[in-house]
């Protein structure tokens, strides 16, 4: 069940009505309803994998309590590593086993040895990377005594399985979401209205921007051998807006629908394509994942406090692991490595935290430099996105090589496909709207709210109806 499906358009109002008018006696009944709804929502993909979600929930709930109750360090360490090992074991088996088996076989073949790897005939459980990280952060925080273990199983189950963030995030923390879950909620009309508007904006980014760009990006990437330089550049740009509209659109919908239930989720995107350097980009892109790796991997490794070698090592570890988290393909690892190379000069010059303020432009030369830095950062991101999108590393290299060596910048692709110029205009208008909203968390707000809402709905109805591309990119991770 996708957020942009007709089934979900029926599912969400039913849950909303039951939540506020039938199960509104206390927070336990409301939480129980949300758990039931979440399990149904998850089972719409494959009910057989519900056992994995339930098992993961029981595992971290029980080991969290055992860690807290253990009087000896040896006991605490046992339960801690048991939880970590089983969680990562399941993640590795379902997501990475076949990848490593095939990679080992290819390595042996490179040495002239024949290898026939044993492969698992299993599909990747949707959302496993997200709900596994929810549980891991909870157990880690208990082990380091940042939080107390949660003894209410209903409340903890909802923290892990809450359907708006279950399959594609944001990656929540127990320190943030559990206290909200434990509080009695009362209906707030203004909060609900803001939630509806945020959901609509997220749906707009998905079906109008992401899905439309996907049609053209897919056509260009699938036929890159016959495309000229301009067409290939457009393909990279279209994919950049596809993945941004797709994932940030999902996050906006998740945050918006949570407001309908009186819950506030962590913000996951903050206009990343207006970043002035790659460090700022990663403070604005997939914030919940970036901060997760920072707090639970980068800082424990020593962060940037050690010597030069430690700084370089930690930077590459965090980006390579982040890339590998996205999928079992070397293209994601290379994508992470490229971002590490982008980030490294900023770290070594100690300028990685220079751009922390809101961008304000005027008619000065400094503003010209700011715009140049934004364009450069976006261009560098697009180069990295080519590896993220390509099927193989070889395809990505040939794609970029074709841009450099072809040297033709005529409107080849624009002339061969319908509505290309209209798409360019739409993307540019979207950039203008995003720029004007860059200080807002809820774009459909402020002046002319009714007009913004009407235009948003009209675009969703017109373009969303004819879109063939329905799935969310991050569901595969």
Write the layout of secondary structure elements.
Blueprint: H1 6-21, H2 27-46, H3 50-69, H4 73-110, H5 128-143, H6 153-161, H7 163-166, H8 174-181, H9 189-222, H10 229-260, H11 278-284, H12 287-298, H13 308-326, H14 330-348, H15 365-389, H16 393-406, H17 412-416, H18 420-436, H19 449-465
Helix pairs in contact: 1-2, 2-6, 3-4, 3-5, 3-6, 4-5, 6-8, 9-10, 9-18, 9-19, 10-15, 10-16, 12-13, 13-14, 14-15, 15-16
Please explain how this structure is put together.
The protein has 477 residues and is mainly α. It has two domains: 6-186, no CATH class; 191-276 and 359-476, no CATH class. Helix content is 70%, strand content 0%. It contains 19 helices and no strands. Helix 1 (6-21) runs antiparallel to helix 2 and helix 9 (189-222) runs antiparallel to helix 18.
